[in-house]
Amino acid sequence: MTSILILNGPNLNLLGTRQPEVYGSTTLADIEAMCRAKAQELNIALAFDQENSEGALLDHIHAARGVHDGIILNAGAYTHTSVALMDAISSVALPVVELHLSNIHAREEFRHNSYISKVAVGVICGFGAAGYPLAMEALAGHLAPNE
Ligand code: CA2
User: Fold this and answer.
1) Ligand 1, CB within 6 Å, residue ranges
2) What is the pLDDT of residue 72?
3) Residue 69 domain boundaries
4) How far apart are CA 23 and CA 68, in angstroms?
5) How far apart are CA 81 and CA 110, in angstroms?
6) Which pLDDT tens digit goes with each residue over 42-71?
């Protein structure tokens, strides 16, 4: 069975509790439930994690090799700073869909650069929590293009 990892970065554990005007009022637990329902529909296995530290995110990416077939990554603010996450994605050679709740290109200049985009198979941003199931469909389609 196809298995994917959805990995969430720093501060995303605060979703639904602060800045709803930017990130919506859906909590990360709500998003996980939405993703688990989508996984059933797509008949794929799902791991769902959130970490605030860069090192822990790197550990999840390294551990995904040989366990998962692809990764959906919302790296939060590390998107714009982390050469280490970019290198980790290259080193595990798993397809990664980059995901953001907000449209990072319509926001501050410092959010326009993404190190993740350079090594991702594709990017979904700006659709809020709905981007998560969209990213799952995109990754499942990428992994099994003829199904
Ligand atoms: O739009 C996204 O998904 C982001 O990855 C979210 C990051 C931001 O740094 C990226 O530029 C875009 C920030 C996540 C912070 O999440 C919060 C949630 C609730 C309250 C405060 C922060």
Assistant:
1) 11-12, 14-15, 18-19, 23, 74, 76-77, 79, 100-102, 104, 111
2) 98
3) 3-143
4) 28
5) 9
6) 999 999 999 999 999 999 999 999 999 999
- The enclosing domain of 92 has a CATH number of 3.40.50.9100
Q: Is residue 23 flagged as an active site residue?
A: yes
From 68, 78, 100, 115, the catalytic residue: 100
Q: Which two tokens stand for residue 63?
A: 């551990």
Counted domains in the chain: 1
Q: Could you write out the DSSP letters of every residue in 13-44?
A: GGTTTS-HHHH-S--HHHHHHHHHHHHHHHT-
Any catalytic annotation for residue 100?
Answer: yes
DSSP 3-state assignment of 48?
A: strand
Q: Which of 56, 57, 50, 14 is nearest to 35 (CA)?
A: 50
